[in-house]
Specification:
two-stranded antiparallel sheet, single chain, 3 helices, mainly alpha, about 140 residues
Length: about 140
Amino acid sequence: MIGDVVDRRSAIVDRREAGFTLIELLVVITLIMTLAGIALATYSRSIIRAKEATLKEDLYHMNDALDQYNADKGHFPPDLAALVTDGYMRQIPKDPMTQSSDTWQTVMSDVDPSNPSAAPGVSAVKSGAEGTALDGSNYSDW
């Protein structure tokens, strides 16, 4: 009889030591959620940084192709499609912020005073994306 009581008490003590309390579980879950939130914020920032780097590189290459076109032909192309048809680019890239190749904003060249009959062409390309970059500048100013 006394042995039965001791066995029951030791079984109760073993059961209590075998599991976690509700407070311990809540602390661990809170820590996991905090770390997951930090990781998610870091991940989304890195995605934005990658898109911004791609946007800057695409703008550099398109503006460089416009300059090469002007140097070779003596005038700027009438539109961005001329860069592809004349072999200066394989294709017009998609703006990584808008996911479209139709949103590029073109800057037209001034009329040449020595040749006023020549039509103005595309002298520069800017992003058509709305919003601000991580550095605080507007995408449309790039």
